[in-house]
What does this fold into?
Amino acid sequence: MERVQKIIANSGICSRRRAEELIKKGLVTINGEVAILGSKAKYSDNIIVDGKSITKEEKVYFLLNKPRGVVSSVIDDKNRKTVVDLIDTDKRIYPVGRLDYDTTGAIILTNDGELANILMHPRNEIERCYYAKVEGIVTKEEISSLKGGIIIDGIKCYPQYVKVKKYDSSSDVSYVSLILKEGHNHEVKNIFKALGHSVIKLKREYFAFLDVKNLKSGEYRRLNLKEVKRLYSYQKRD
It folds into this structure.
């Protein structure tokens, strides 16, 4: 169950703020009953918005190897290229989570709001594997300190795995692989910043079990039914 304004926004009919305005005016119904702010519904419910039914369009799922210099959003107020621009589809898709403008790698795009919520909810602990190029030597002591967790913006983060793959003395940079489950904004960059290192390059190598090894930068592919079912299986029940 989700708040009805979130379902409306995910359907692409209007923004969440506009949906809330329509709810306040009594112009949204759920299975024939007038919705109020706070009303919850399922994606399968019959939701009418200002006389229009939310269309249950075909669900599509894409895995994209995001390039640098592309925004992880549907539209951008600075007219920069977005991840949606890279996908050839007539469906109203959106990215699941975000990758920074200069971060590359695996990102899922879909019009399935239910699955998107499963994949973004922290309690489902979806693994995200990153490969980072950072300034300086990342020491064993620093790696060890991460195992007990690190405070980032008042939140304690627990990397599941951190390993220095190599150190290039000629350029004084370290290459580090790490796995996270929280999915906070700028989490990897903030972790290294707390250790005194700046991130030069960052790639998300895989999300859940999906990697982009066979996709060139900017390329994408559709997920198959087996993969979609496996992603749904990450949902933890109360």
User: Anything to note?
Assistant: The chain has a mean pLDDT of 92. Helices lie at 4-11, 16-24, 113-120, 140-147, 187-194, 225-232. The first helix runs from residue 4 to 11. Residues 127-207 form a domain with the Alpha-Beta Plaits fold (CATH 3.30.70.1560).
